[in-house]
Amino acid sequence: MKKISILGSTGSIGKQTLDVVREHKDKFEVIAISANSSVELLLEQIKEFKPKYVAVYNEDAAQKLKTMIPSDINIKVLSGMEGLKTISSLPEIDVLLTAIVGMIGLVPTLEAIKHKKDIALANKETLVCAGKLVMSEAKKNGVKILPVDSEHSAIFQSLNGENYKEIEKIILTASGGPFRGKKKEELLNVTKNEALKHPNWSMGRKISIDSSTLMNKGLEVIEAKWLFDVEVDQIDVVVHPQSIIHSMVQFNDSSVIAQLGCPDMRLPIQYALTYPERLENSFERLDLTKIATLTFEEPDLETFPCLKLAYDTLKMGGTYSAVLNSANEVLVEAFLEDKIGFYDIPKYIKETLDAHDSIENPTLEEILEVDRWTREYVKSLIQ
Ligand SMILES: NC(=O)C1=CN([C@@H]2O[C@H](COP(=O)(O)OP(=O)(O)OC[C@H]3O[C@@H](n4cnc5c(N)ncnc54)[C@H](OP(=O)(O)O)[C@@H]3O)[C@@H](O)[C@H]2O)C=CC1
Ligand SMILES: CC(=O)[C@@H](O)[C@H](O)COP(=O)(O)O
Ligand SMILES: [Mn+2]
């Protein structure tokens, strides 16, 4: 039995992780679950999976959950950041699955690494804001960082048994999002509801907006750099609207290896939890004869400037990617609250990057301070 703790069990990835557990009840045991404030769903999950711990970040919600749990259920209710850190480092867990959204996942993930827990990583913001630190801590503690993000799982699977030094290029596929093929003039006044309509994946709100701006691909470029230890010019993005090829690796002998499958996050989640083994499951099989065409095009960096901004921050180094990420988190939230327009997202990110004094090799405390500064700066721009 693999013992799992889940950061963000009530979200899109969290719920699909529990689907994987349901599929393999004899293989996985859920020791801890958590959320920000979705207590009704947490209660259902507690009744079904019987975890020993639940962490609710929001203090009021944690208190509310305590009153909702029937007296015959024995579970420890924790709260705040301390709660998230505790469930990330429990002695009895083998792996922490990070399905929480945003850079708030950084501190508990580092806590898990310090306690030598393997990480099944969906929370890409952690590597975007602190990739160097997280990967070096993982190496120091002998911890595996197992990618859940579909593209990075595809790359990881394509690299199975290969020598990472022989990678020539990583080719990240992008769906192009809901606005693929459109030009800036057509997108100036798009609404959040239009932006939330991803063509292939049903995901949380933040990542759905990121896909519509192509920031998601930018964050994934940065995530790939740290996971696979490649240079920025070794990472290409190709738009592949069908989301069947989840990504590829080109090797130094010109061979290209790819991973394909139906768009279903349960597979990368399962693979991260069972690696290096594979487990038979009931998920839909890919039938290539039913797919008329697989197409590929270059990303349009003029219409989608967020992707270029992400590449730029990798080239500039230091804490620029952390600023990109924190600014984006604030701006996506503001866009979802109808406070800013679609193109205000790249505009204010650029202005914040221009105002930032970068720090080379930042410590955790410095990254947290950069996050605080960035949020304050961006909010002052919006007002
Ligand atoms: N969805 C997908 O298919 C994919 C997602 N990812 C990445 O996975 C991560 C999760 O995405 P997704 O599942 O879509 O997001 P969702 O918005 O669907 O879920 C987010 C989860 O995080 C929890 N959460 C948010 N803030 C806090 C907090 N402060 N403390 C504790 N828990 C918190 C939420 O709790 P609550 O319900 O209470 O708000 C919820 O459980 C993101 O980093 C995303 O980029 C990567 C690849 C694919
Ligand atoms: C499922 C997944 O991994 C998402 O990150 C997905 O890739 C988003 O799609 P695009 O960003 O390519 O539109
Ligand atoms: Mn992805």
Automatic annotation (TrEMBL):
The keyword Nucleotide-binding does not apply. InterPro entries: DXP_reductoisomerase, DXP_reductoisomerase_C, DXP_reductoisomerase_N, DXPR_C, DXPR_C_sf, NAD(P)-bd_dom_sf. Its cofactor is Mg(2+); Mn(2+). It catalyses: 2-C-methyl-D-erythritol 4-phosphate + NADP(+) = 1-deoxy-D-xylulose 5-phosphate + NADPH + H(+). Keywords: Isomerase, Isoprene biosynthesis, Magnesium, Manganese, Metal-binding, NADP, Oxidoreductase. It is an enzyme of class 1 (oxidoreductase). 1-deoxy-D-xylulose 5-phosphate binds at residues 124, 150-151, 175, 198, 211, 216-217, 220. NADPH binds at residues 10-13, 123, 125, 204. Mn(2+) binds at residues 149, 151, 220. Pathway: Isoprenoid biosynthesis; isopentenyl diphosphate biosynthesis via DXP pathway; isopentenyl diphosphate from 1-deoxy-D-xylulose 5-phosphate: step 1/6. Residues 260-377 form the DXP reductoisomerase C-terminal domain. Its EC number is 1.1.1.267. Residues 4-131 form the 1-deoxy-D-xylulose 5-phosphate reductoisomerase N-terminal domain. One of its GO terms (biological process) is isopentenyl diphosphate biosynthetic process, methylerythritol 4-phosphate pathway involved in terpenoid biosynthetic process. Catalyzes the NADPH-dependent rearrangement and reduction of 1-deoxy-D-xylulose-5-phosphate (DXP) to 2-C-methyl-D-erythritol 4-phosphate (MEP). Belongs to the DXR family. PANTHER family: 1-DEOXY-D-XYLULOSE 5-PHOSPHATE REDUCTOISOMERASE, 1-DEOXY-D-XYLULOSE 5-PHOSPHATE REDUCTOISOMERASE, CHLOROPLASTIC. This is 1-deoxy-D-xylulose 5-phosphate reductoisomerase. The gene is dxr.
